[in-house]
Amino acid sequence: MVRILVIHGPNLNLLGTREPEVYGSTTLSEIDAMLSELAGELGVEVESFQSNHEGAIIDAIHDARGRFDGILLNPGAYTHYSLAIRDAVAAVGLPVVEVHLSNIYQREPFRHRSVIAPVAAGTIAGFGTESYRLGLRALAHLLQGDRAQRRN
Ligand code: DQA
After folding, report:
1. pLDDT tens digit sequence for 49-94
2. Which candidate in 8, 23, 78, 132 is catalytic?
3. Ligand 1 center to residue 97 CA distance, Å?
4. SS3 state of residue 13
5. Pocket around ligand 1: residues whose beta carbon is below 6 Å from it?
6. Residue 69 Cα distances to 23, 97, 126, angstroms
């Protein structure tokens, strides 16, 4: 079965109470529960991880090699400047779908640039918690397509 690692970056542990006008009122554990339910429907397995630390996120990306087929990643503010996370994504070569709750292109100019986007398979932003669900669908589609191709 296709295995997907979900990585939530800094401050996302505070979802539910953090700037609800921007990020909504759903908590991170509710998002993880939604993703587990959708994973069941899609026939994939998901495991979720959250960290406020850049190095821990990099370690999780490295450790995903051989254990997961792809990564659903919300890098939080690291999106905009962490070349180290970008390099980790490029180094492991696993397909990564980048997701954001908010539409980063409608917000402050410093959020308009993602250093992760050029190494991601694709990006989904602006749909609130639905961004995660759309991202999981997109990644599952990509990975299940890969598997079918390898079988043929
Ligand atoms: C975010 C957008 C980032 O700019 C911000 O720093 C976050 C959350 C989002 O999901 O909308 O922490 O990644």
Report:
1. 999 999 999 999 999 999 999 999 999 999 999 999 999 999 999 9
2. 23
3. 15
4. helix
5. 11, 74, 76-77, 79, 100-102, 104, 111
6. 28, 12, 25
